[in-house]
């Protein structure tokens, strides 16, 4: 007898504006026990340097995700027929203390990863990625990373602080959590504080793909190169900062930059991760107060669905 997996509540059984408030209207549970994949909210935004509001993103992304149906008509992917998936709620952070919140996130993920589960996080600002990677590397060792962002997030410090949303990948590389030669940063752009702002990543072996190199073209060939760079066996983490996209398609974010990726290119990137050994990911920096239509959160939910579809072992129907 085949295993019965959790299924999203259908919009044909319950109107999309009603029903549970979980991601994709999936069943919920308190722990990751028995799950192949889990979604978890990490509503931290006290690591931001500009507009706040990302603390509200997990709730908003969940709300907008009610529109998403269970099958990809483009790839034939059927993630809810492939894996046992649930929404395991939110982490109880200390909203007044960034350093303590980072410790809470690390400890929470270390406990979570005692189960054989692939976690996908709903941020929150990009600071959350560092404690998550600390827990991920504790289990898997240094990982490959596909990082989509307008910024490299490799500042050495911000206002004297070593851990903020703009320093996470410098710290992660310094701590040996990432294999920098198996890391790609896609969509970085705009202005900087010096002409050398992207050089630290490149000097450490990171494949930095500036937004200008993506303009007016498909990113499918880039992703083929990235798959070759990383290899199919290396544990790989996806970190998607929504400000990697152009503000015309994702205005609801704290640090928007012009000249960004399109929604189509975002789909190409995530679909292009199929074939990698994806072991988790995050979607960060959605700020609902600046998302008047809900379209940024809706796009974020779609990208999380695409991450499910790109997991190894996901059934793909003809």
Sum up the structure in keywords.
single chain; 318 residues; alpha/beta; Arginase, Chain A; eight-stranded parallel beta sheet; 8 helices; 8 strands; globular
Descriptive overview:
The chain has an 8-stranded parallel β-sheet, with helices on both faces. It has helices at 57-64, 98-112, 129-140, 168-174, 199-203, 220-230, 263-271, 295-309, and strands spanning 37-42, 85-90, 118-123, 143-148, 178-188, 207-210, 235-241, 277-284. The protein is globular and about 55 Å long. By secondary structure, it is α/β, with parallel strands linked by helices. α1 crosses α8 and α7 runs parallel beside α8. The chain has one domain: Ureohydrolase domain (Arginase, Chain A), CATH 3.40.800.10. β1 (37-42), α1 (57-64) and β2 form a beta-alpha-beta unit. The model has no long low-confidence stretch (mean pLDDT 96). It is built from 8 helices and 8 strands. The longest helix has 15 residues, at 98-112.
- Strand-and-helix sequence, N→C? EHEHEHEHEHEHEHEH
Query: Major β-sheet, in short?
Result: 8 strands, parallel
The number of domains:
1
Per CATH, the class reads Alpha Beta
What is the name of the CATH superfamily?
Ureohydrolase domain
Tally of DSSP β-strands = 8
Chain-averaged pLDDT:
96
Can you tell me the CATH architecture?
3-Layer(aba) Sandwich
Shape label: globular
What is the helix content?
25-40%
Poorly predicted tracts of residues: none
Q: Strand share of the residues?
A: 15-25%
Distance, first to last CA: 23 Å
Report the C-alpha radius of gyration, rounded: 18 Å
CATH fold description: Arginase, Chain A
> Strands across the major sheet, in which order?
2-1-3-8-7-4-5-6
Structural class by SSE content: alpha/beta
Number of alpha- plus pi-helical segments: 8
